[in-house]
Amino acid sequence: MTPTETGSSALHADAVTTLDRWHPADPEQELLRRDYLAHLAEQPEGLFRSCLPAHVTASAAVVDPAAGRVLLTLHPKVGRWLQMGGHCEPGDRDLASAALREATEESGIPDLVLLAADGLPVPARLDRHQVRCTGKDQPENTHLDVQYIAVAPPGAQALISEESLDLRWFDYDRLPELTDHSVRDLVARARKLTG
Questions:
Q1: What is the mean pLDDT, run by run of 10 residues, along the chain of 195 residues?
Q2: Which distant-in-sequence residues (6+ apart) come within 8 Å of 162 by Cβ?
Q3: Residue 139 CA: distances (Å) to CA of 54, 129, 132, 136, 163
Q4: Which H or E run includes 3?
Q5: Which residue in 57, 61, 114, 171 is a FRET match for 96, CA 20 to 30 A apart?
Q6: pLDDT, position 90
């Protein structure tokens, strides 16, 4: 087994363990959790972009609870304000580190901390959505997104990356019009969990 295959197996095992031990209170989220686990049971490479028509992704809502705000990126391909996130990479050791890597890269904020329970980062929610990540002239595929909450240090300054058209902080109660229900649900969840 090559190092990449070993890393891929470890990431896959972590995703299964993470979803196995996560117990959402919402029945809809529970159905998604079971669907994600079924996908992973059928797809050993189910966390990578090459797995079509669906693959697991990792994202994080970057929040500054003291200021009551969330950082969103204007995604160039989607044309909407979204949380930070994207595809897992072979070097990612677990879903949480994939989400944290994406959040750090896209926000430019060091020292983000994922919300945890019993010392382990835990998902906040799941979202299944259609995208064209293989190209706009290609068929849509499905992202099985595992969403985390990343807490920024108070007063953190964001730095836009090349992966974004714009990057801004928004008050929890004043999200931009170009957000979908998934982002709004994630921000509401973040607000509840960070008090």
A1: 58 96 94 98 94 95 96 89 94 96 96 94 95 70 96 93 92 94 96 92
A2: none
A3: 11, 14, 7, 8, 22
A4: helix 3-21
A5: 171
A6: 86
- The answer to whether 55 touches 95, Cβ cutoff 8 Å, is no
Which whole-number Å values give the CA distances from 99 to 135, 147, 171, in the listed order?
A: 22, 8, 22
CA distance linking residue 42 with residue 48, whole number of Å: 14
Provide the pLDDT for residue 2: 39
What pLDDT is recorded for position 131? 79
Instruction: Count CA atoms closer than 13 A to 82's CA, side-chain side.
Output: 23
Q: For residue 89, what are the CA distances in angstroms to 7, 123, 154, 176, 192?
A: 10, 18, 29, 30, 30
pTM: 0.93
pLDDT value for 195: 83
Look at residues 57, 109, 54 and name the one whose alpha carbon lies nearest to residue 86.
57
Which range marks the domain in which residue 151 is found? 3-194
Longest Cα–Cα distance in the chain:
50
Report the domain count for the chain. 1
Task: List all residues 6 or more positions away from 100 whose beta carbon is below 8 Å from its beta carbon.
Answer: 60, 112, 114, 121, 148, 150
| CATH code: domain of residue 43 | 3.90.79.10
